[in-house]
Structure formats: structure tokens, C-alpha cells
Amino acid sequence: MRFLIDAQLPRRLAHRLRQEGFEVIHTLDLPLGNRTPDSTINDLSARDQSIVITKDEDFVTSFHLLRRPHKLLLVSTGNITNAEREALFLASLPEIKSGFRRFHFLEITRKSVISHT
């Protein structure tokens, strides 16, 4: 699985997911960094078949209207610490992996991983 992590999420999440064996790019790794436009992120996701991880609901709109990004993981946890977010992601990885085998849009909350059609 390939992930592209959007600007509102910390780079350390990218490092942690890499440690778990995933291919990960954070927007800070891109030439425009955190100023990378959503359209560019969508194009990269489509080209590389990567999953965009974001808190930005604008990606939900583009996903439903344009089917971009390729796949989407919306983070709807509210304000939690980076350590709590990392622990939540690690605990949810089995559900995330299996969810993306069937769906193109998942949402992670503090309590569950939700599949959207």
C-alpha cells in the first residue's frame, strides 16, 4: 500500500507508517511542501495509485464528484495528540488494509474505521 499524507497531519505519522513497511510520502516531501494544491495531490494519488490520508473534507467532495483521489482515508478524530493518533493508526492497520481491498473511501474515528461507498 502507498500512502500520501496531507499537510494537516504530522510528518512523524509518515515515518511511523514507513516503519510498518508502507510506501509513504508526506506533502512536506513534495516540491511545494505543505502548499501543494489539492489538485496536485489528487493527480499524484491517481498516478501512483496511492491512498490520500487527510483531515480535509474538500477531498471527500472531490472523491465523490471526480473519483479523485485514487483512494481516500479521512481522519475524523478531532483534536488528539500525535502519539494517540499514531497508536490509533497502528491499532487500525488490519481494518484499514482489509477495508481498502473492498472500498476506495474509508474514515477513521477514535472508535472505528468506517467504510464508505
Plain-language structure description:
The structure is a single chain. By secondary structure, this protein is α/β, with parallel strands linked by helices. It has one domain. The chain has helices spanning 11-19, 38-48, 58-66, 82-102; strands at residues 2-5, 23-26, 51-54, 71-75, 105-108, 113-116. It has a 6-stranded mixed beta sheet, sandwiched between helices. Helix 4 (82-102) links the parallel strand 4 (71-75) and strand 5.
Please summarize what this structure is.
The chain has four helices and six strands, in the order βαβαβαβαββ. Helices cover 43% and strands 21% of the residues.
Distinctive features:
single chain, 117 residues, alpha/beta, 6 strands, globular
- The shape is globular
Poorly predicted regions = none
Q: Give the amount of beta strand, in percent.
A: 15-25%
Average of per-residue pLDDT values: 96
Number of domains: 1
| Number of E-state strands | 6
Set out the fold topology.
Blueprint: E1 2-5, H1 11-19, E2 23-26, H2 38-48, E3 51-54, H3 58-66, E4 71-75, H4 82-102, E5 105-108, E6 113-116
Parallel strand pairs: 1-2, 1-3, 3-4, 4-5
Antiparallel strand pairs: 5-6
Helix pairs in contact: 1-4
